[in-house]
Amino acid sequence: MRSLEFLDLSANNFSSQIPNSIGSLQSLKESNLSKNQFMESLPDSFMNCINLKVFDVGHNLFTGNLPSWVFKLALESVSASENRFNGNLDYPNTLLLAASIKAFKS
């Protein structure tokens, strides 16, 4: 599965945490985990998905801060809306890191 490029697990009513093993999918380009009941925080192992361009985790139960690695990857589209994230984004530093992002929905 290390060569997997597209992962769509949307609208399945999955719950619990996303496993750290997600980071082993280094070829992953698009990840749609929206419309589930994933909770707690996004795993830092996503940082290993260096080819990731589209990242959709909207409509879940994630909590805490939106991790800074979201802005360090060369993502083009990020959707994190309809979660329970809190805290502040570190403007303007966050915007400088997010130079590749063309669409951001939170």
Oligomer: single chain
- The chain-level structural class is mainly beta
Note the main sheet.
Answer: 5 strands, parallel
Strand elements, count: 9
Q: Write down the overall geometry.
A: globular
Order of helices and strands: EEEEEEHEEHE
Major β-sheet strand ordering: 1-3-5-7-9
Averaged pLDDT: 87
* Unreliable runs: none
Ends: how far apart? 30 Å
Estimate the helix proportion, in percent: under 10%
Summarize the structure.
This protein is mainly β. The protein is built from 2 helices and 9 strands, in the order E-E-E-E-E-E-H-E-E-H-E. Helices cover 8% and strands 25% of the residues.
Structural account:
By secondary structure, this protein is mostly beta strands. It is 8% helix and 25% strand. The protein has helices spanning 69-72, 93-97, and strands at 6-8, 15-16, 30-32, 37-40, 54-56, 61-64, 77-79, 84-85, 103-105. It has a 5-stranded parallel beta sheet, with no helix packed on it. Strands 2-4-6-8 form a 4-stranded parallel beta sheet, with no helix packed on it. The model has no long low-confidence stretch (mean pLDDT 87).
Helix-strand blueprint:
Blueprint: E1 6-8, E2 15-16, E3 30-32, E4 37-40, E5 54-56, E6 61-64, H1 69-72, E7 77-79, E8 84-85, H2 93-97, E9 103-105
Parallel strand pairs: 1-3, 2-4, 3-5, 4-6, 5-7, 6-8, 7-9
Task: List descriptors.
106 residues; mainly beta; five-stranded parallel sheet; four-stranded parallel sheet; 2 helices; 8% helix
